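Internal QA ticket QA-208
Title: Verify multi-chain structure generation after dependency bump
Assignee: T.L.

Test input:
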Amino acid sequence: MASERYNARVTETRWQKAWDEAKVFATANDDPRPKYYVLEMFPYPSGRIHMGHVRNYAMGDVVARYKRARGFNVLHPMGWDAFGMPAENAAMQNKVHPKSWTYSNIATMRDQLKSMGLSLDWAREFATCDVAYYSRQQRLFLDFLDKGLVTRRKSKVNWDPVDMTVLANEQVIDGKGWRSGATVEQRELVQWFFKISDFSEDLLTALDGLDRWPEKVRTMQRNWIGRSEGLRVRFQLDGAVPEGQDFVEVFTTRPDTLFGMSFLALSADHPLTTALAATSPEIAAFVEECHRMGTSAAAVETAEKRGYNTGLVVRHPFLDAVFPVYVANFVLMDYGTGAIFGCPAHDQRDLDFARRYHLTVTPVVLPEGADPTTFAVADEAYTGEGRIFNSAFLDGHSVAEAKEMVAHRLETATLGQAPQGTRQVNYRLRDWGISRQRYWGCPIPVIHCDSCGVVPVPRKDLPVALPEDVDFDRPGNPLDRHPTWKHVSCPVCAAPARRETDTMDTFVDSSWYFARFTAPDADDPTIPEVADAWLPVDQYIGGIEHAILHLLYSRFFTRAMKVAGHVGLDEPFRGLFTQGMVIHETYRAADGSWVSPAEIRIEAGETGRRAYRLDTAEEVTIGAIEKMSKSKRNTVDPTEIIESFGADTARWFMLSDSPPERDVEWTDQGAQGSSRFLQRVWRLVGETAEIAPPPGTPVPDVLAPAALTLRKAAHRTLAAVGEAIETLRFNVALAKIYELVNALGSAIANERAAFAAPGEAAALRETAEILVKLMAPMTPHLAEECWHVLGNGEMLAMSPWPELVPALLVEDEVTMPVQINGKKRADVTVPRDADAATVEKAALALEAVQRALEGKAPKKVIVVPQRIVNVVA
RNA sequence: GCGGGCGUGGUGGAAUCGGUAGACACAAGGGACUUAAAAUCCCUCGGCUUCGGCCUUGCGGGUUCGAUCCCCGCCGCCCGCACCA
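Actual output:
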C-alpha cells in the first residue's frame, strides 16, 4: 500500500461520484443547525474555466468544507452570470445562437467545476438567462416601479459605439467602455433608471458597519458615493437677462470664500445658457464647442479652462459689487446646480480660469503664520486651513466658523421670495441607468402605448420572454427589428402598442442571485422567511474588480427588495474577501508574438533561465510576470493541470505560499512541489496505517516522550489551522500543515520503535487522522482516500472537525530567550508557572549573562512571563 | 493632484496588544540509494567574520530595557479616483 503512488485521477473521480450519490453537499432549508452561507462570485460562462476560477472556488470550498465540519448547515451554491455581450458577439462571428452558445459553455464549465471536487449544492444551480430566473427579475422590476424606485427620463448617456449600447458611469473606465475598450460618446436617449441615489446616504453610512469588508473596498465605495456638504447660494442677475431668469443658483462647499469671488460660471447645459444661446450665436457656438469636447480622461486632462463672457452680471450677496457671468467648459451640469461661483485664490480650477481671463484674485483665507499685507496667490491656489481676512464680518474666524456664519446669514435672508442660501448635501453617485440596446439580456417588462403612455406589463402576462428567431447580421438591437415580437396590444386600452425593446444591464442579474439561491424554485422572486434565514452571505469571495459596480448595485438591490417586501435586511454580504489574481511569466518569440507556456521548455543554467520553443528549438524571450490573459497567451488550462496532477494539487498550490488577497504566480515547479507533497502525505498515511491500531483505539493519558511530542504537535497544528482558516489565511494554514507532516515523517522514519506499543501507536493514528482532517478542506479527495486507508468507514466529508485537547497546548516548561541590552544572548528554560523572581535568578545565573555583566550588578532586569528576559547591563 | 496600501534572504512569504527576524515552501548546491534515470531520503542555504562575535526587515532620525511593528522626515513601487465646485 505504502509503495503505491497515489492515483489522483482515478481516486478523485471515484470520490466525486460517491459524494454525489450520498448527496453530501445538498443543503436543506429546514436544517436546524446554525446556518453559514458561503458564496463565490458566480462565473460568466465564457467557455472554459481559468486559473482565477480555480483559486476563487478553492478558497470558497475550504471555508464551506471547514464550516460544514464545524457543524454548520452550509449553503454553498453555484450558478451562471449568463447574459451579456460575448454571446451576441459569438452569434455575429460564428452564426451560433446566443442561447445555445451560452448553455453549451455552461455545460462545459459545469463539468470542469465538478472535476475540482467542490462541495456545492448543484441542485440549486441556475443561470441568469433561464426564463425562470429572469421572469422573477421582471417581477422585481415591476415591484420597484410600484415603489417609485424606477424612473424613465431623457438623459445624456455614455454610448459605446462598438457595442452599440449604453454604459453606466461605473462602466466607463478612462473614457472607454469597460468591455469594448472603445472611446465612449455622449448621446441623449430616453433611459430607464434605478433610483440608487435615493439610498446615497444609507449606502454611505452603512459602510461603517461592514467591518468584515476590506477597508480598501469601503474606501472606494465612499469615494464613489462622494458625499459633500455645502450651500446652495442664490444670486440676483443683472443685464440683458432672459425672460423669467432673474436668479441663478450655485452650489459650493466653500461659502467661507464668498468674499474672494471674482466670477460666476454656468455649465454649457445650464437652462440659462440654453436661453442665452437662443439669441446669441456666439454663445450657441461656444456651447457646441463644449459638447464636441470629449469626456475621456485624456481629453479632460489636456482641456484648457475656457469660457465665454455672457455680458450678464450677478450681485454679490454681501458686497455692493457685481461679477461677470461666464459659460465655462469645466462646469458640469449634473453635479450641484450646474453653476459655480469662482474664487480663484482658493480653487485651482478657478485660478486657472481667472488667469486666462485676467480676473481678480483676492485671497480670503490666510495660512497660519502668513503676513496678511503680503500674502498673495501666484500659480497655486491655497486650499488649506487658516484665518479669514479681506472678508468684512468673517475676518478673524476659522474656515469652519466662516462656513457656518455665511450659511446662517444666507438661509435667513430672502432673495426674490426664496431663501438666499440653502444647506445642501450633494452626492457624486448618480442613478443607475439600466437600459441596454441589446438582445441577450432581461427584457424590461413595459409596453409603450400612444394613448396610455408607458404601461407596465401585467404580472399575469409575465414572463416577457426573449424571442428565439433573431438575426445578428447587423449591429444594433435585434429585438427592435424583430418582425413581430414588439407588437402587442396595450394592456389598458387594447390599442396596438409596442414592447420596450431595451433589455436590462447585466449587472442587474447579478444584483440578487445570492437571494435567489436561498429558494431557487420559488414562484416569487424569494421566499422572504427563507431568504432572511440564510442572508446575509456570511462569506463572499471574489475579485477586487467588482469593488464598486457589482457590490454597490447588490447593496442597493437588497435595500430595494426590502422596500418591496422580498427580504428583510439591507446588507447582503456580511463578510467580503477579495482575492488576488493568478499571474504567470510571459514569453515572446523573435517576431514579437506571444508564446504560450505549453509551447516552451525552460533551461536553468549558469547564465540564468532560458526558454526555447518545443517545436523549433528557437529561443524565446522570458518577459514580465503578468495577469493570465488570452492576449498575452500566458494562461495555464486548469483541465490540463487536473488531468496531469489532479484537482487536489491544483487546489493546494493555489492556496499555498501567497496570501490569498495578493497575486499568486503559477509556476510548473510550484505545481510539482505541491504534487510531491501530496504524494508524501499519501505515503506517510499508508505507513501509519500499517502500524496503527484500529480506529477508535483510545490514546492513553500517559505517553512516552516521542508519542507525546507528536501528539502535542498535532493539537498545536489543529488550533493553528483552525484559526488560520477562520481568518482566511490559507497560506499560513498550509505552512502549519507542512510542519505537522515534517513532524510525522520524522517520527515514522527516526523513532519508529517508540511507536511499537499499542498506546503509543494510537497517538500516531490520532496524529494522522488530525492531519487528514485538517487537509480535507483543501485536498478533499486525497483526504477522503487517506481516511479510508486508515480504516474508517464513514465518509470524511460527513465527519466532524477534530476535537482539540487544550491541555496539550500547554507546555510544562518554557524556554525563554535572554537578551542583554536588547540583543539575544542565551536561552533559559524554566517551569511554565515560574514567577518573575525565579526567572530572573535563573537568567542571571547563565554563563553568557555572567560574562556580559563582568561581576557587576545589572542596572535593570525585565521579565515578561513566558516571553522574554532582558538584562540591562 | 486626491485617497488607500505596500517595501523582510536568490524567490513566494512567516513573525505585529512592541518581546528569539527569516517559520513553511520554491529555487540552488552537496551527499546517499541506483548500471543509469526517475522517485525517495539526508545535509547546507541573509551578509561579514580574526570563529569571540559583528551587521541585517527601503533610507535617515526619534520614543523604548527592547522596534519589521509606534512617531517624524525622505525614497521607491502598486491600486483606486480624478474639472464633483
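Spot checks passed. The mean pLDDT of chain A is 90.
Status: verified.
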